[in-house]
Design a protein that fits this description.
single chain, alpha+beta, 7-stranded antiparallel sheet, 5-stranded antiparallel sheet, 16 helices, rod-shaped
């Protein structure tokens, strides 16, 4: 090339560089750019062969592109494609080569510096005659660096077509070309990384869209209620999204629910439970209001949905309908504490109510007993069920016997007042704190005290409360023990079905004869017990008279007129007495009356002659 006139050579080289650089920038991929580099070195700079070794992510260099003007026998330099040389060997090779500016020239007599792992091909060229002739084992390398100074690769050229070692102008042109090649390779890599990033982003967006669609479908078409609640800002706690199942469950349109929160919908008695329920993995069983004014039992389960960058985003709440389960629980609780035949409280419930009414300490002498009230006011809710009538939380029909339910609801707390929602005990706490054996709540207790007997022949067991001239209340908790007379003969003569019908009718009559708030219970067989709180001795006698008059009239069963009598005993319950003592005392009073009237009494071994059935 230097054999021609210098100005012409420079102008022609500049034109060639302009063309090959344009080809470099026209390439759209890294592979296309590398191929443009080797072809530009061959066609634009006057070399017969060129190769590019590209730095891999692990630091080693791999032959990524090769070009030869005319294909050599046995494959030529193309056999080098894909071969790898270590970074250490390449650094040593570049270090021992002659520095021609940014180029590196390795003369043939320094071939020992080429490590065995560096890809190399030597053709059958002409041996040099003069000192500046090109030797087949000579090597000219153009390292290519990024803008940050990192090695991108090495451009290797071989066999100048002039047969001479490149002069100053050719070396300068090769330096400029390698610089442009570095820029083109860097841009191609950036484009490749950007394309891979865009592909990943598109794939992630597709996955996100698919995930959002899956969530939307799972949320919208879930068979149970689902809601999303705002966690931050002015709308904290507001329902921002609800599904159709929740709208159907509460009977409210979506637009209305989205203007409310669970705090707006929860039953007033369950508000504290809702506030105590934690957001993360919180669970609560409570009641939410329906559009028709009723309440729906639901189970709320909370899960926090968090953003990786911003933390918790919203609260996802699963709303499960547990109305049927709750109804069954109430039914089971009612059946466990009530007689299946008559619907009255059974013996266990009677004892439980007495246990809740009486404490283990007798009324101190001279202490005020506090206001007396109906026995129903002393029964707090058992089993953790909500206060309020069962009929209000679970309106009929729920499988309870219609006749027994309606006949005894007023006395069993199922109509108008919950038997378990009783008023707070107004216990008076004695000076010095509660007596031993009294647990929490003693300070709210109203002592049950046997009322004063102002007439002759009062019960002996009330005497301790009158000692020392202390004032004794005129009203107390009466226990009326009722035992049917003649019931066994009905059972024997007409069968158990008739006997059961008689028991149901007796239960109905007793329930109608007592006061509001009194308890009528079936103790077992043909025995009934009435608890009447806040009643005096004369009033208790009047109540016993009403009960007897209610039972004595004939009753028509299966077209037959049947009649039973009743023996009644009046006992009194006071704090410090055991439940067995209370019931035994009333039972003895009943048998005193039965003996006085010549009825069935105890046998030789103290066993009753009439039927004792549960």
């Amino acid at each position: 090339m230097e054999a021609e006139s210098e100005p012409y050579v420079r102008l022609a080289t500049l034109r060639t560089l302009h063309r090959v650089v344009a080809d470099l920038n026209a390439a759209r991929s890294l592979a296309g750019t590398l191929q443009a580099v080797v072809e530009g070195a061959v066609h634009g700079l006057g070399f017969d062969a060129a190769a590019v070794s590209l730095v891999r992510p692990d630091g080693d260099l791999v032959v990524a592109a090769v070009w030869e003007l005319e294909e050599s026998p046995m494959g030529g330099p193309s056999v080098l494609l894909g071969q790898v040389g270590s970074r250490e060997s390449w650094d040593r090779l570049l270090g021992v080569s002659d520095h021609w500016g940014t180029l590196r020239f390795l003369p043939y007599d320094r071939g020992w510096a080429v490590a065995s792992d560096i890809p190399r091909w030597i053709g059958d060229g002409t041996l040099p005659v003069y000192a500046n002739d090109w030797h087949p084992a000579d090597g000219l390398l153009a390292p290519m660096y990024s803008a940050g100074g990192d090695l991108l690769g090495v451009l290797s050229v071989d066999r100048p077509r002039s047969g001479k070692r490149p002069g100053a102008w050719t070396r300068e042109a090769l330096e400029m070309f390698s610089l442009q090649a570095s820029i083109a390779i860097g841009n191609a890599r950036l484009r490749a990384e950007m394309q891979r990033a865009l592909a990943r982003l598109e794939k992630e967006q597709q996955a996100l869209r698919a995930s959002e669609e899956s969530f939307r479908q799972a949320f919208e078409y879930a068979p149970s209620g689902m809601a999303i609640t705002e966690l931050h800002g002015a709308g904290r706690g507001q329902l921002t999204r609800v599904n159709d199942a929740l709208c159907r469950l509460l009977g409210r349109p979506r637009a209305v629910l989205r203007q409310q929160s669970f705090a707006d919908l929860v039953h007033p008695e369950d508000r504290a439970l809702l506030e105590r329920t934690s957001a993360e993995s919180g669970r609560a069983e409570l009641r939410l209001s329906r559009r028709d004014g009723g309440y729906q039992w639901v189970c709320l389960r909370n899960s926090i949905v968090a953003d990786a960058a911003e933390g918790p985003s919203f609260l996802l709440t699963h709303v499960e309908d547990i109305e049927d389960r709750k109804r069954h629980e109430f039914q089971l609780a009612h059946r466990a504490s009530h007689d299946a035949l008559t619907g009255l409280p059974n013996g266990a419930e009677l004892k439980a109510r007495l246990a809740r009414r009486l404490c283990s300490q007798p009324q101190p002498v001279g202490a005020a007993a506090g206001p007396a009230g109906p026995v129903e006011a002393a029964y707090p809710p058992p089993y953790g069920y909500p206060a309020g009538p069962v009929s209000a939380a679970y309106p009929p029909p729920y499988g309870y016997p219609a006749d027994s339910y309606s006949a005894h609801a007023a006395h069993d707390g199922l109509e108008g007042a919950d038997p378990y929602a009783g008023a707070v005990h107004g216990y008076g706490l004695p000076e010095g704190g509660p007596p031993p054996g009294i647990g929490p709540g003693y300070g709210e207790h109203v002592h049950a005290v046997v009322p004063a007997d102002h007439g002759p022949g009062g019960e002996a067991w009330s005497a301790p409360f009158r000692s020392g001239g202390a004032a004794v209340p005129d009203k107390g908790l009466a226990v009326l023990f009722c035992d049917l007379d003649g019931f066994k003969s009905i059972n024997d003569r007409f069968g158990h079905n008739a006997g059961d019908a008689v028991l149901v009718e007796v239960a109905r009559r007793l329930s109608q004869a007592v006061r509001d708030g009194d308890t009528v219970a079936r103790l077992g067989g043909d025995e009934f017990v009435v608890l009447a709180d806040g009643i005096g001795r004369e009033e208790a006698k009047d109540l016993a008279h009403r009960l007897r008059n209610a039972i004595i009239p004939p009753m028509r069963i299966d077209g037959r007129a049947m009649r039973v009598g009743v023996s009644l005993g009046i006992g009194w319950a006071g704090c410090g007495m055991s439940i067995e003592e209370v019931l035994h005392t009333a039972d003895e009073r009943m048998y005193d009356e039965k003996r006085a009237r010549g009825g069935a009494v105890r046998g030789a071994r103290g066993e009753r002659s009439h039927r004792r059935a549960g």
